[in-house]
Amino acid sequence: xxxxxxxxxxxxxxxxxxxxxxxxxxxxxxxxxxxxxxxxxxxxxxxxxxxxxxxxxxxxxxxxxxxxxxxxxxxxxxxxxxxxxxxxxxxxxxxxxxxxxxxxxxxxxxxxxxxxxxxxx
Length: 121
Description:
By secondary structure, this protein is of the alpha+beta class. The protein has a domain at 40-116. It is built from three helices and five strands. The chain has helices at residues 24-36, 39-64, 71-76; strands at residues 69-70, 86-89, 95-99, 102-106, 111-116. Strands 1-5-4-3-2 form a five-stranded antiparallel β-sheet. The model has no long low-confidence stretch (mean pLDDT 88).
């Protein structure tokens, strides 16, 4: 018989000796609370929010316009050029920056060419 306390609400546990929480609600609340107090997760969430916003802007333009847009147009929509997931450098020296599956290249005239990758992980 278990005589320890719940990891979240601290009530006495009854049952198995390896039981840590009195119910699913306490288990979920404990892990959510622990996740939310980790400052590194907050930083990662913030970066991910920027990248997701960038991806959504690229997706919207790609699906609606299919033509290069000026780099200032992306800034007006809230795009942040500092945040991307990865890059690809072509033999020509052109550098595509990606926000997950949407990539962009800024040409010499200041226009942004948007592409979508079809690869699946």
